[in-house]
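Q: How would the C-alpha cells look for this protein?
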Amino acid sequence: MNFYIKYNILVCLIFLTEPVHHVTGQLWSYPNRSEFQQLEKDIEKAQSDIVDLEAKGIERHQNVQNDIRILQLRLDAVSSIGGSSSVPCGLIGLAIKDGAHYLLQKRVNGAGWGSRQNAEAVMALRLADPRRFSVGKSLINYDYIQGVNDMFIELISELNRPDFENDTLWAHGKLAQYMVGLTSACKDTQSFYGFDVASIVRRQFNTFKSFFKSQKFALSWVVLALCNANLTEETTAMDILSANPGFYTFGIDEASMIVMALSCVDNSSYSTAQRVAEDSILNGSKPDGSFGNEYTTGLAIQALTRYSGSRHDVYGIIQKAQDWLARNVIGKFANVAMANQVLPALARRSYVDIKDLKCHKKPNTAPTLSASGQCIHVKITAKDNMINKTPFERSWVANGNKGDSMFVVMQKLEQQEPSFNFTSITFSSGEFIRSIVGIATDSGLRQYWQFLRYPDTVMPTGVSNTYPNNMDHYVFKVTTW
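A: Here is the predicted structure in C-alpha cell form.
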C-alpha cells in the first residue's frame, strides 16, 4: 500500500481509542475490538514498511486507487458517521494531507509554483491548516515559508516593471488574487516592500471596469482582496456584483465566488443577491453529492459555508459534497488551481476566512529612506549540502536602501523576517559570516560560507564592502577551502 496513505491511517486510531466522540455534530461508534486489534497490526506493519518504501523510491501515487479501496473497506468496517453520506474515518483529513503534500512537492526552489500561481498555492495551504504559518514564532514549516518567499519575490519583480499596472494578465483579477495571498501570509497590502498593492488593485478595477462588468468571477477577487485586508469596499464593484441576480455566466463557479464576496462585505443591501446565488448553488447539487467536477464542488462547498438562508438541510448537503470530494481527489490533484479550490472546502473554510486568520504582528521595520530616497529589494539564498544530513536551500527578500552594504541589508532582513537569522565575526577587513539560520561552519573542518552573485560568481568583496542594487540576487553556500 502507498506509504503516504499507510502512515496517515494512524490519524484514525486517535479517534477510535475513545468509546464515543462528537465530530461535526455526529457520533463516532466504538469499533469491534477484534477488528480494532487487526487494524492496529496493519498499522504496525505499515509503519515498519515506511523506510523500505522510501528507500525503493516508490512514487506517492503508485497503486493509489487500490490503496484507497483497501483503506475504505477497513475503516468502513470499524467506524462510520450516521446517515447516507458516511465518510470513512479520517478520509477528509487524508485528502487534505494529500493535497498539501502535492503542493509542497510541486514547488520549485526559487520559482515557487510557477508564474502567477504562487498566491493560489499559499492561500490553499494556509486555509487547509491555519497553524501552518505563524509570524514571529519559531522556525516552522520551511517548505511553506519558502513558498511564501517565492510569492513575494515573484510579485516584487513584477511590480517593478513599468508596464505592470496595465498588464491584463495581472489587471484582470490576478493581482487581486495575489492581494488575498499576501493577506493570508500576514503581509500589509498597503505597504508591501514599498508598493501599495491595494491602491493598484483599485486603479485596475476603475481602468478595466468594462471587463469586470462581464466577468464577475474575476470581480469577486477584487472585492475579496479589499474585504480580507479590512479595507473599504468599492461600492461600484458591489453594485456590479449584485446586479442581475440569478444570471451567472460561469454557472455555479461564478455564483459561488459572488456568495463569498458578498458575504465577506456583509452589507444588508446585497443580501437578496447573495441568497439568490446561494439558491442557484443548492439547485445544482447532484444525487452523488457533487456539484459537477472537483473544481466546482470545491467552490460550492466554500460558498455554502457562508450560507445565510433558512434551509435546514445545508449542513447535510455540505457533508455529502465533502464526502464525494474527498473520495475523488486523493491521488488525483492535478494542478495548483484545483488545490486552491478543493483544500479550503475539505477543511470547511472559504476565501472569506482569510480575514480571520491569526497573525502574530511584528514591529514595523520598514526601511528609513536614504538620502537618495530609493528603496531596494535584494534576494538572498542560503545553500548547504555539507553540514545538514539533507540538502538545505532557502531564499528570502530583504528590503533596504540604495547605498546599504550587504551586511546592513542582512541585518534589516533579520529584523523583517523571523525565519532568517545569522551571526558574524568582525575582522579588520569587515564582517565574516559564521552561521545562517543556525547552520554554523566549522573552521576546524575548513568550512565557510562562500559569498556568490547568483548563480555561481564568487564575489571579489565581502558583505561589508558589497553594495547591492535593486533586485540583485546573492547566494551563501557552505563550502571548504
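The mean pLDDT is 81.

The CA atoms of residues 422 and 436 lie 4 Å apart.

Upvote if useful.
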